[in-house]
Every structure is written in structure tokens, then in C-alpha cells.
Amino acid sequence: MADCEKNGAARSAIASEDVDLRAEFAATGLGSILEQLDRDLVGLAPVKQRIREIAALLLVDRVRKRMALSAEAPTLHMSFTGNPGTGKTTVALRMAELLHKLGYVRRGHLVSVTRDDLVGQYIGHTAPKTKEILKKAMGGVLFIDEAYYLHRQENERDYGQEAIEILLQVMENQREDLVVILAGYTARMETFFRSNPGFRSRVAHHIDFPDFSDDELFRIAEMMLAKQNYRLSSCAADALRAYITERMRQPLFANARSIRNALDRARLRQANRHMAADRMVTVADLMTIDAPDILASRVLRRNGSAGPATH
Predict the structure, then answer these.
(1) Rounded distance between C-alpha atoms, residue 258 and residue 264, angstroms
(2) Distance (Å, whole) CA 224 – CA 179
(3) Is the CB of residue 257 less than 8 Å from the CB of residue 221?
(4) With contact defined as beta carbons under 8 Å apart, do 270 and 228 qualify?
(5) Model confidence over 247-258: pLDDT tens digits?
(6) pLDDT bracket for residue 74 (50, 70, 90)
(7) Nearest residue to 146 (alpha-carbon basis) of 196, 80, 209, 90
């Protein structure tokens, strides 16, 4: 007990001020970023919770630094894994804003790239391409989608390894001015990390993005339409639910991305339906997606000889 009291007295002596972490949180504006994330993305509760946990860690780290309790910057490089259309790019954008609010990056911008932006096609081409991208990303977040394509081991003449070596060096030596997020399918990213242990050792936060449920995808569709001043009739809503159920069973399904494409085609059909009707249209007509605009999809009217439908 005496030792505990001594430790408590020592802690009191170290602390020169009490800190209200909730007030610190409010002062940074983190709440607005997390609220925007909730508005932008339906579901993804585990992802949002992990982002909040990282925000809390960085907020406390900032307070500790101010009180001379911490000097070394935390490792912030991340891995986002999951299927296409699960919100990885959106979360990366909010993460860039969050890191900027907390003072961990200077500018808070997001630079999103793929292999083609980093890897050249001939000797001497890769280094300048990679360095130019890194220069643009400095002070913010570099998001590398489908990062496992950086190096194709089956091709001995592939120049991706040069890009990887430059990235690893910058991730280690300039981690106070750049955060790198590697993204892609879960299984392929695991293989990539096994083949490139240098990346794994530099990535502190691994976040997995689950697929959306059919109800979540329907809510996402409603949000997408509302942003463009469209709405579903009751019959169209039933048709869209049926479409989502069927589309989720098919290959090449990309979650919210597939739903966005389906809505674009529904809007196209709606426009042509009104043009073909040769009559006056109302504002309500222009705003409403009706059942025929959904039911015309090949996903719902495919036949046995049509093969797998993807639209």
C-alpha cells in the first residue's frame, strides 16, 4: 500500500495540469469528422469503432506530448482489407482529415493511386514516377489500392520491386510527414504481406471492411438517390430489393459500387421512358424512379441461355 501511495504521489508530481479529454476532443473538431463518416457510410460498425479507437489513441498521444510524456511519433501506416465497394477510399479520406485535425500531417489531403501510377514500363522509369507521387502525397495520406499488384513475382522483368523499396524507405524515414494506407482483397493482401515483410513491420493498424448486408445496400441506394434528388416509388423499392438480393449472388459483385452502377442505369431508363411517352412531365415524374426502371435490368429478366448477368 505504501508503494502504491508513493507511486500516486510521483504521478501527481509529474502532472502539472489536469486534462479534460472530452474538451480536447471537442476542440479538435474530431466529432464533426466522425459524424461525417457516419453520414457517408451505412453500417461498417467495426470499422467506425476502430477509427474512433485510433482517434482516441492519437488524441491522448498529443496530450502526452504536450505534457512531455511522449516524444516519438506513433506509426500510423495502415492496411484496409475487404471487397470492392465497401468504403475503403471514403474512410481513407476521413482518416486524412482526422490526422490533419490532430496535427499528425501538415496538409490533410489524400492521394489515391494504383500500380500504374507508381511502376514504370522500362528501366529508369519507376523511380521518378514513384518519387513524384510521394512528393504530391507528402504532408497527407497516400492510398495505394490493390497494393499487391505493386510487384508481380511471376514476371522477372517487373519493375514493381523498385517502387516497393522506395516506398519502404520513405515509410520509415519520413513517417512524420506521410501516412501510407495499403488496400485490397483480404486474402491477396495477406499473401502480399508474407512476401514483403518490410511492409508488415511498418503497418501499425490493420482494418478489415465487411461486406454490406442487403438491407444496408438498400439504405445506401436510397441515400445515393436522395443526393441526386431522386426517390423510389413503392413498387420500385420492392423491385430494387429483389434486384439487390439477386445481384449479391452473382460474380463480380462490388457492394455499393455495383448498386451505384445499377442506379445509374435505372436513371437512364427513367429518362428514356419519359422521352418515349411524348407527354408533359411533372417535377414528381422527374424525381421518381419507378418499377419498370429497375425491372428492365438483365439481373431480373435473365433467362437460362443468357449466361451470368452483370448488369
Answers:
(1) 10
(2) 30
(3) no
(4) no
(5) 999 999 999 999
(6) confident
(7) 80
Cα gap 299→294, rounded to integer Å: 10
Q: Which residue has the higher pLDDT, 4 or 230?
A: 230
Residues contacting 173, CB < 8 A, separation 6+? none
∠ CA 254-260-262, nearest 5°, is: 90
pTM for this predicted structure: 0.85
In the prediction, which pLDDT does 29 show? Answer: 87
Q: What would the grid cell of residue 158 be?
A: 517487373
Rounded-to-integer distance, Cα 120 and Cα 238, Å: 49
Contact in structure between 181 and 77 (CB atoms under 8 Å): yes
Q: How many Å from the N-terminal Cα to the C-terminal Cα in the chain?
A: 70
pLDDT surpasses 50 at 305: no
**Closest to 14 (Cα-Cα) out of 72, 63, 59, 68:** 68
The answer to whether 88 and 71 have CB atoms below 8 angstroms apart is: no
Burial call 248-270: b when 16+ CB within 10 Å, e when fewer: beeeebebbebbeebbeebeebb
Distances (CA, A) of 27 to 21, 37, 45: 10, 18, 25
pLDDT digit string, tens, across residues 134-184: 999 999 999 999 999 997 776 667 788 899 999 999 999 998 899 999 999
Instruction: Report yes or no: 81 and 207 within 8 Å, Cβ to Cβ.
Output: yes
Band (203; pLDDT cuts 50, 70, 90): very high
| Share in percent of the chain as helix, strand, coil (round to 5) | 60, 10, 30
Among 220, 225, 229, 284, CA closest to 247: 220
